[in-house]
Amino acid sequence: HLATSLPLPSERDHLRPRIDLIAFMIDIKSKYSLKNVEASLDHVDASFFLGKVCFLVTGVGRVNNCSVDMNAIWKLGEVYCSPVLFCELELEGIRVATAQRLLRMLQICAGHIPGVSALSFGSLMRNSADD
Fold first, then answer.
1. ω into residue 17 within 30 of 0, thus cis?
2. pTM: predicted TM-score of the whole model, two decimal places
3. What is the distance between the alpha carbons of residues 9 and 11, in angstroms, rounded to a whole number?
4. I need a surface site. Which of 20, 69, 92, 125 has the fewest CB within 10 A?
5. What is the phi-psi region of residue 95: left when phi exceeds 0, alpha when psi lies from -120 to 50, beta otherwise?
6. Which residue blocks in 1-131 are alpha helix, DSSP H?
7. What is the pLDDT of residues 96-124, one digit of tens each?
């Protein structure tokens, strides 16, 4: 399911499926995109930041057209203890690899991978980013 911002409308709460992973998309060419994500973060329950949130930064192949400060994106990942993924949606190979990575994260967050929790996976992602 996709939403352009949070909070989600409450009139359909009873029909909404369980939310296992929230992927915030930030378009590197749009300051509005980052501001929208920052405003939406206030509407996310704190428990989601225990491995069930990630930031997906798109448009990274066009760094010369960058409107968003990369340090602000890295800071979001640090402050919210959530992984930051980078991708270029216009390149099919990278788009497919990113989709597979997100699907694997979703499977872990939904509890479909025995022995791996969202919290341990989130910690593993942060540790690998530090290396």
1. no
2. 0.83
3. 6
4. 92
5. alpha
6. 31-41, 70-79, 92-109, 118-130
7. 999 999 999 889 888 888 888 777 766 66
